[in-house]
Amino acid sequence: MNVLEPITGTVVAVSxxxxxxxxxxxxxxxxxxxxxxxxxxxxxxxxxxxxxxVARDPSQPNLRQVHLIHSELxxxxxxxxxxxxxxxxxxxxxxxxxxLLDLPVHTLLYIGHSAVVQITGLRNPCRQLxxxxxxxxxxxxxxxxxxxxxxxxxxxxxxxxxxxxxxGDLIRAELxxxxxxxxxxx
Length: 186
Hints:
The chain is mainly beta. Helix content is 13%, strand content 34%. The protein has a single domain (12-174), classed as Beta Barrel (M1 Pyruvate Kinase, Domain 3), CATH 2.40.33.20. The two termini are 23 Å apart.
């Protein structure tokens, strides 16, 4: 990662769902609320909202308030026979031009005019991907040269500053202080 060059990208689409559904519906815009997440989304809140995590401990902090996926993953999946559209696999913000998976924990993403999302970690792909499209879970996993698992299903974050986000908004990443902590599943 060359930290001398600005790290920027663009919002391709925004999505939300008020129900605990796998896919989220594309919207003209979404509103991020500080410390809570996406207004009107089932995963909004200070504490965990994902059903499996609530079952384990409902008092855990919600480190998964906003789910971001790079649209370049959809390009890769399309080459493998999967037609995936923004919101299909549950993300709130679909991006282009920013290597989300390469960013360290605590990176701040300045999105649009005012919103700021702090990256907390990786989305851990689950079997619901295979329910949505058979074989999709394996398609979003890979191995590096050392055999370590690479999760490509996006990153999770918390809202530090609220604001409206819409397609076409610019994204600027601000890296945290050194040493960088690599992304882990949250």
